[in-house]
Amino acid sequence: MAKNPKFTILLYHKIGKYPSNAKFPGLYVAEDDFDRQIKYLKNAGYSFLTLSDLKTLYDYYYNYNNKYKAGDSAAAAASDAAHGLINESGKYVSITFDDGSKSVYTGGFKIMRENGVKATVFMVSELVGGINEWDVKNGENSDEMLSLQDLKEMSEYGIEIGAHTLTHPRLTEIAPEDAYKEISLSKKSLEDLLGGSVNFFAYPYGDYDAATEKLAEKAGFYGACVTKTGIVKRGADFFALRRVAIRHNTDFFKFKRKIWKVGLFY
Ligand SMILES: [Zn+2]
Prior knowledge:
This protein is of the alpha/beta class. It has helices at 31-43, 51-67, 73-83, 103-114, 133-137, 148-157, 176-194, 210-218, 252-265, and strands spanning 6-12, 14-15, 28-29, 47-48, 91-99, 119-123, 160-163, 200-202, 223-229, 241-245. The chain is globular. It binds zinc ion.
């Protein structure tokens, strides 16, 4: 078993070519680029994990002796769950999509299915079946969001659905009680819609602080993603999980360099 494995979490938003009038083209990754990136990771020997799978493995590698006593049934269950996921090379990647753009279904899902890849989608829960209202307020084009049917179909395939607040506010700029509602009610409403537990959260705009981290923990999440660059390694703060952002202009050379660099220097 690999010692001290590193987990790389990639951050995407929309899958498709960016319209020429897009205000934030960095939110888009073209389908053929996405396909090529996934095939590269597969060929390089990476395993693709949902964030819940990542946590199962992380706990097995780094917290097993703290959390379990040898021989008890929880220890055996944790070990069994981890062994179904272990990659001897220690190369693990988690693909995440923030917001819940419809393009993740129309452009990305087919590519993930063809490649047998699992991922995690962070959904703005009040906008299921709606449009990107917060983005439009920031001057972006109107764009469809995932429908309940899309979420269900992806979730049945094995894509994990995480929460990304009710309405996509900057959590450190609103009252703490409102921030807590945005965090905890987005979890609850997605759980009600999908009939399963929603374990992970992503802070809109990557905007968080120590108080916001506590709110996400209090809401019952196992962890939360930020937009700062880095990987998940021993001693990681699970309520500030770092990622590697992939953008419209991340060409294949840059993509490979980003993955290599983050593994070396973070
Ligand atoms: Zn977002």
